[in-house]
Specification:
The radius of gyration is 17 Å and the shape is globular. Strand 1, helix 1 (14-26) and strand 2 (31-34) form a beta-alpha-beta unit. Helix 1 packs parallel to helix 3 (67-77) and helix 4 crosses helix 7 (164-171). The N and C termini lie far apart (53 Å). It has a 4-stranded mixed β-sheet with strand order 2-1-3-4, covered by helices on one side. It is built from 11 helices and 4 strands; from the N terminus they run E-H-E-H-E-E-H-H-H-H-H-H-H-H-H. The model has no long low-confidence stretch (mean pLDDT 96). With 219 residues, it is α+β, with helices and mostly antiparallel strands. The protein has helices spanning 14-26, 42-47, 67-77, 89-115, 118-139, 152-157, 164-171, 175-178, 180-189, 193-196, 202-216, and strands spanning 5-9, 31-34, 56-59, 62-65.
C-alpha cells in the first residue's frame, strides 16, 4: 500500500518551507493543505492538540509535529534517497546544533525587525546581523553547510532567504553588504528545484507582513 502523506502548512511559514524542501528532495508525493491560521481547521487541532500550530506532517494517519522533528522523521523514513543528516554521530550532532541555533536566533530576532521601532529595532538589527555573521563563519568556504551537498542545516536555514527582503526593508540595511558569502550560499541553494519551487517571491512575503502590521496596529 502506498504511503498517505498530508502536510498541514501555511505558504508563508519558513518552518513549513523546510518540510516542503525535505519532501521535494526525497521525491515524496503528498497532499498539501494551506491552513487559515485565524480560523484553524478541525484536522489541525486534532493532529496537533498541544501546540495547535503548523506544520504538521500526517503519515498514514499519524501526526508528526514541529518542523525540525518532521525533517528528521522524513530523513529517517525515506532514508534511501538524498540523505539530509550525516551518518557520523558527531557530524549529526553538529548539524542539529546549528539547526537549533537557526530556530532560536533567526526567527525571533527577524520578527523583531518588523514588529518594533526606534532603538529596539536598531538593537534587533545589530543582533540579527551578528547571528548571520556567526552562520556565515560556520559556512566558511564550503558550498553548503553539508559540504558539497545540501544537508539538514541548509534545509533549516534557506527558507529565511525568502524573508530577507522583509528584514532588510524593515531594518533599512543590506544583508549582502554584511554577509556576502551567506548570500552567495543562498543563491546557490536557489539553484535546487526543491528550493526554488518552494520559496515564495520575497515581495509576496513583504506584502503579507504589511497586511499583518496593519492588522496588529503596527505602523
Amino acid at each position: 500500500m502506498a504511503d498517505e502523506v498530508i502536510l498541514l502548512d501555511k505558504w508563508v511559514s519558513p518552518f513549513g518551507m523546510r518540510v516542503r524542501i525535505a519532501l521535494a528532495e526525497k521525491g515524496i508525493k503528498y497532499e498539501y493543505r494551506d491552513e487559515d491560521l485565524r480560523n484553524k481547521g478541525e484536522l489541525l487541532l486534532k493532529m496537533n492538540p498541544v501546540h495547535k500550530k503548523i506544520p504538521v506532517l500526517i503519515h498514514n494517519g499519524k501526526p508528526v509535529c514541529e518542523s525540525n522533528i518532521i525533517v528528521q522523521y522524513v530523513d529517517e523514513v525515506w532514508h534511501d534517497k538524498a540523505p539530509l543528516l550525516p551518518s557520523d554521530p558527531y557530524l549529526r550532532a553538529q548539524a542539529r546544533f546549528w539547526a537549533d541555533f537557526v530556530d532560536k536566533k533567526i526567527y525571533d530576532t527577524g520578527r523583531k525587525l518588523w514588529t518594533t521601532k526606534g532603538d529596539e529595532q536598531k538593537s534587533a538589527t545589530e543582533e540579527f546581523i551578528g547571528y548571520l555573521k556567526t552562520l556565515e563563519a560556520e559556512l566558511g568556504d564550503k558550498p553548503y553547510y553539508g559540504g558539497e551537498k545540501m544537508n539538514y542545516v541548509d534545509v533549516t536555514m534557506i527558507p529565511f532567504y525568502s524573508w530577507f527582503h522583509t528584514y532588510e526593508a524593515s531594518g533599512n540595511f543590506s544583508i549582502e553588504s554584511h554577509c556576502p558569502k551567506l548570500m552567495a550560499w543562498a543563491k546557490r541553494c536557489m539553484q535546487h528545484e526543491s528550493v526554488s519551487k518552494t520559496l515564495p517571491e520575497p515581495e509576496k512575503n513583504y506584502e503579507f507582513v504589511l497586511q499583518m502590521k496593519k492588522r496588529l496596529g503596527i505602523e
